[in-house]
Specification:
By secondary structure, the chain is an all-alpha fold. It has one domain. The chain has four helices and no strands.
Length: 125
Amino acid sequence: MINRLYDAMEERKESSVLRNIFEGLLEYTKTHFSDEEKLQEKSNYPDYNLHKAPHERLTKNTLNLFAQFNNRAGEADIAFDLFKLLKGWWVGHINSVLQTCKILFFWQTFFNRKARQVGAENANL
């Protein structure tokens, strides 16, 4: 998504991809955030509310930019703002915050498996 936008901006053809990128991003945020938040709730993720806030911000900012796009504001400016938004999201959220979630979920899974193994071994005594 970010690469497609960048390429279109380089070729000065952002108007041909913006609608598709906005629609794809909004669909992504709706399904991915919902799935991720359910997983966090299920696993009692300790920073759930802290993690959810950036999801809400990205969705709100995307909707605001999409509204500007639909009102025919300057497409080059909107494309640049969307690019900054996506880049910031990739660097700030995906590369840092999600690494913490990944580590937490790994250790939860590991300890849950160990607890089940110990429980099974104790049941066989």
